[in-house]
Amino acid sequence: MWEIGGKKLNSRLLIGSALYPSPANMEESIKASGAQIVTVSLRRQNAGDQAGQNFWNIIKELNLEVLPNTAGSHSAKEAITTAQMAREVFNTNWIKLEVIGDQYNLQPDPFETVKAAEILIKEGFEVFPYTTDDLVVAKKLVDVGCKILMPWGSPIGSGQGLMNPLNLKAIREKFPDIQLIVDAGIGKPSDATQAMELGYDGVLLNSAIALAQDPVKMAEGFQYAVEAGHLGFQAGAMQKREFASPSTPTIGTPFWHQFD
Amino acid sequence: MIEIVVNGKKERMNACNIQELIEILGYHDNSFAVAINGTFVSLKKYEETMIKSDDEIEILAPMVGG
Known about the structure:
Chain A is of the alpha/beta class. Helices cover about 40% and strands about 15% of the residues of chain A. In chain A, α5 (about 135-145) links the parallel β7 and β8. In chain A, α1 packs parallel to α9 (about 215-235), α3 (about 75-90) packs across α4 and α7 packs parallel to α9. β4 (about 35-45) of chain A pairs antiparallel with β5 (about 55-65) of chain B.
């Protein structure tokens, strides 16, 4: 069990709901992942559009925690308005704050993100800010009241894994009491394990599962990967050595002789 | 009759407030939210929020997201 945003959960995997081959595959993949938090968005829809309503019905029936995002926002104002709209539609004060600053690599705009985070926290939101692995930006977000930080592993949807584990580790060490989630860039289960081994509290991903050849199987793989990494972190890894060291006892070795 | 922009599309409407607008457009359930000129309008303020020509209105509903 762990606690985030006032909720006690078992799974440390947060899963996205986009890009799956079909709604049925999305539903099965989310179930197979064991995730208890699913990200959703708000988009323009005409009255009577069934696609969005059908999607929302599936998500509601899964009975998970819903984390709406502000994807597509390019300013604090747009993100704040989207967050306020999401709070009413999804009936949650949780918001994945995404303010994009560059269309090429979808890098978050740190200035607008901090500005929006400060206002949203004052309005009672639990802000999950998508940020880079920049320690100073992380500090600014904590300074305005963020209790959760979501630094990227690498650009959204790139599947490049953790570009800069050193920076992610520094954020972990600097903020031991902040909930840290690697968001974006995860490509394969071992990337998630690596993030968890760094002591991160969770991993948020979408494309790595949805764009896999078999999303349902990959979702199950990620469930184990996140759990394995977390257990590994809790257990504490052995110290690396420069040279080999036998694990089988050397005393009583049969046919023993001294090597040159 | 006023000319407004709804979800990026120009519309000619005979509506005075948000409540009338969403009824004309046919939104029924509560799975949507409204913003006018970039500012959120909560459900309980639909009737008191007047609309005028050239207002830009966003009506957003749940969709997949990462």
